[in-house]
Amino acid sequence: MKYLKLLIIVFFLIINVIDCIDKKETTQKEVKIKFKNLKSTSIKRYSESNMDKIQKHLKHILVERVADTSNHKKVREYIVSQFDQIYWDIEFDSFKDNTPFGEKTFTNIIVTSKFVNDEDNDDQDDVDKERNDNVSSQPPKTLVLSAHYDSKYFKEFKFLGATDSAVPCSMLIDLAISLQSEIKKSKKKLMIIFFDGEEAFKEWSDTDSLYGSRHLANLLLDKKVITKDNDDLPISSNFYNTVEAFILLDLLGTPNPRFYMFNKKTESLFKKLSDIEDKLSLKRFISPKPNKYFQNHYIGSNIQDDHTPFLNYVPTLHIIPYPFPNVWHTEKDDESCLDKNTIEDLSKIFKVFVGSYLI
Questions:
Q1: How far apart are CA 42 and CA 39, in angstroms?
Q2: Active-site residue set
Q3: Could you tell me the sign of the dihedral formed by the alpha carbons of 157, 158, 159, 160, in that order?
């Protein structure tokens, strides 16, 4: 009887713990980032055609670029060369890991905006300024954009991976260059990560995939952001606490993609993209089409990708077509499958999204 009572107590303790965990999960707040309305001149500028520049990047990236090969190194060097170090800090996360084909070297590229505008607004009143003088300096908030730059190895054919992910990488480079003037004036940081080793060398598994993102997610656990308070004393903050959102782009470039919400916590960000699409469509800044790109529907999904290792640390938004393009992991995922209007439309939407975040 004594043991039975003990078992009953233990049972109810376990139930209570599970209930607390469930409540913790369901009560987590939805991500709410402050966006500002862009001036019409800025929207018009972001909506200008940059397809020629994106295609220029594609010419250098759209090659077979399996991790730890000479072509892969050339692509990495090209990506880095496009970022003016007046505006950007460039870091490399290089490491070795075991693969089905032996030990390989991987290198993630982390590009971070240098400038943080700490100046007070001219229209800020004296009371606000005095209040700010008594508050410790907070680290700047950061938006992370990302894509992978390696291509998958196939013994049977040369895989170029136009959608997977030469186009996303080219779009991110173009976005960064286009927004440099806004970045210089912003109080927020923009980080762009080009992941290495997303693709499996053989069959997708926990150990044969996501080499770069798994390594970097753990590495950033120890990253500190140092700022100074009003007495010029250093303040250390955990990097992940400064990240407002982590956005991953993948499999972009084929015509008529449809994107869905996979994560309720970043629903507001997805809806922001959808709203921007509506506004640009209304102004005829993007091409007419029968269906929206950003469908305001939530579907549960556990699609594994480079955002997966970060799920426990930061709010993630996975921008990937669903269903996948029919060229996925075939030799047809080359330049011939790409639709210029779609690439240009998505590029404009992302620029307005990031531009309205930075101001």
A1: 5
A2: 198, 250
A3: negative
Q: Which amino acid is at 103?
A: E
The pTM score is 0.88
* Residue 47 identity: S
Rounded to an integer, what is the distance from CA 356 to the centroid of its chain? 16
Q: Which two tokens stand for residue 246?
A: 């982590």
Give residue-wise pLDDT tens across range 200-254.
Answer: 999 999 999 999 999 999 999 999 998 887 777 888 999 999 999 999 999 999 9
350: Cβ contacts below 8 Å, ≥ 6 apart: 171, 175, 249, 273
Q: How far, CA to CA in Å, does 297 sit from each of 260, 293, 322?
A: 6, 12, 12
Question: What letter represents residue 133's amino acid?
Answer: D
CB of 297 within 8 A of CB of 332?
A: no
Residue 1's Cβ-count burial label (10 Å; 0-12, 13-18, 19+) is: exposed
Query: Which SS3 state, helix, strand or coil, does residue 66 take?
Result: coil
Assess contact for 163 and 333: CB atoms under 8 A: yes
Burial call 243-282: b when 16+ CB within 10 Å, e when fewer: bbbbbbbbbbbbeebebbbbbebbbbbbebbbbbbeebbe
